[in-house]
Design a protein that fits this description.
This protein is α/β, with parallel strands linked by helices and about 425 residues long. The chain is built from eleven helices and 13 strands. It has one domain. It has helices at about 5-20, 55-60, 90-95, 110-120, 160-165, 210-215, 270-285, 305-310, 315-330, 335-350, 355-370, and strands at about 40-45, 65-70, 85, 125, 130-135, 145-150, 185-195, 200-205, 235, 250-255, 290-300, 390, 395. The mean pLDDT is about 95. InterPro entries: STL-like.
């Protein structure tokens, strides 16, 4: 089928979805699980390995329950104390609408774990991978939606949070390459009562950088072992300013649990970053913002082929900047929040950021959320970066930490900046 015909059929399908207004209150609720299966704090991850050292550490964190989403390669006898293992057979039996849309051998199967946790009482979800673990042995974030935080004071539509935490020459995977050389943002306003329902901690060791960095900023065969400034305070991004965040070492509070959906029509090295940008934009419509915390986890990265990663990340390099520009300008006149979520997902197909199957997945996901008892957040008035300031605008310059460079081997070097 030629591309013109494909576009025609896609637009027809999108119009069909747009024409049908969904009455979310009419969606049937699933039965509430037994009380002894309910828990308010869940850790969600997916793995193809037997329980790793990091997974065992996560399972031992007091006050948290772990759900592990299996795939076709995961050992069938996977088991560990304080962990719920969802085999492929168990996933099917849960009866979620999204199940029929999720491919096997896909990171997006993690979506089933999110729904399982929400159905089983989750008010907070910590998401990570099987090669990450909290450095203190505890999950240390601000586990409340409102607090006093330093908020970036900037006109830029994108900032690099690694600069604030002492690594000004490193950028996170998904950061638009055309903005790498932008002047750093050091100005902040201390704000009272900031709503931040998605919180990411930067990760020491081998952080999540893109293949461009790995191919040009470290010697072959050398593991990254960088550190961020642990004394730098947490920071919040204002509305209309974005930063990439991934699916590792990230806390989602109840108001943002809808934003965990991982798409299926973009590459593996793109899917969680696209999810993060999508969720950030929608977060503003419920009066909340994204925050970054000082290092509170460490990663010892599973083996990767960097050239294959580079190819897989192609969409990040080509489209991340355009995606951010689109999201900052995007608006919806839909009255309820879930309709806005679907509205944005449709607009992203028309702009070429993902494909029709992700609209279908979004619709199924939202319907599943309602069916497992999740309460849709209310739409907020126009977003504000700061409702009440504490003191004057300040400039925060944190300590620059040694970083990784070519021809330095495993020795980290510090630039005089």
């Amino acid at each position: 089928m030629d591309s013109a015909r494909t576009r025609e059929l896609t637009n027809f399908a999108l119009r069909q979805i747009e024409a049908k207004e969904i009455n979310w209150s009419k969606i049937l609720r699933k039965q509430t699980p037994p009380k002894d299966e309910m828990h308010d704090k869940w850790i969600v991850l997916t793995t193809i390995n037997a329980p790793t050292t990091d997974v065992k550490k996560l399972a031992g964190i007091d006050g948290w329950k772990v759900v592990v989403v299996g795939d076709t390669k995961t050992p069938a006898d996977w088991s560990h104390p304080n962990c719920v293992f969802l085999s492929v057979e168990k996933q099917k039996s849960l009866g979620y609408r999204i199940h029929e849309l999720l491919p096997y051998k896909s990171y997006a199967r993690k979506n089933i774990g999110y729904l399982y946790a929400i159905q089983h009482g989750a008010k907070i979800i910590y998401e990570t991978d099987d090669d990450n673990s909290p450095t203190s042995g505890q999950i240390t974030f601000f586990q409340s939606e409102l607090g006093d935080f330093n908020v970036y004071k900037t006109e830029s539509i994108v900032v690099n949070p690694y600069e604030h935490f002492g690594q000004s020459t490193i950028w996170p995977r998904g950061y638009p390459l055309e903005h790498i050389a932008d002047p750093p943002s050091h100005k902040f306003v201390k704000c009272q009562g900031v709503d931040t329902s998605i919180q990411q901690g930067v990760v020491n060791g081998d952080p999540d950088v893109d293949a461009v960095f790995r191919l040009t900023r470290k010697d072959k065969g050398v593991d990254l072992k960088v550190e961020f400034d642990a004394d730098a305070p947490p920071v919040v991004l204002p509305p209309y300013t974005m930063a990439p965040f991934n699916s590792q070492n990230t806390l989602f509070l109840n108001k943002a649990l809808w934003g965990m959906l991982i798409p299926i029509t973009v590459a593996f090295r793109v899917c969680d970053i696209w999810r993060g940008y999508w969720a950030q934009r929608l977060l503003w419509d419920v009066g909340s913002q994204l925050s970054f915390f000082p290092p509170n986890a460490v990663q010892f990265r599973n083996a990767h082929n960097y050239l294959e990663d580079f190819i897989d990340e192609k969409m990040l390099y080509h489209d991340a900047g355009r995606f951010v520009e689109f999201l900052v300008k995007w608006k919806s006149d839909k009255k309820d929040f879930f309709s806005r979520v679907l509205d944005l997902s449709i607009a992203m197909v028309r702009e070429g950021f993902w494909e029709m199957k992700d609209v279908m997945l979004t619709k199924a996901w939202l319907e599943d959320l309602v069916s497992v008892g999740y309460q849709m957040p209310a739409v907020s008035p126009a977003p504000k970066s700061c409702k009440k300031t504490i003191g004057e605008e300040t400039e925060l310059r944190t300590k620059e930490k040694p970083s990784s460079y070519l021809r330095a081997g495993s020795r980290l070097q510090n630039l005089e900046l």
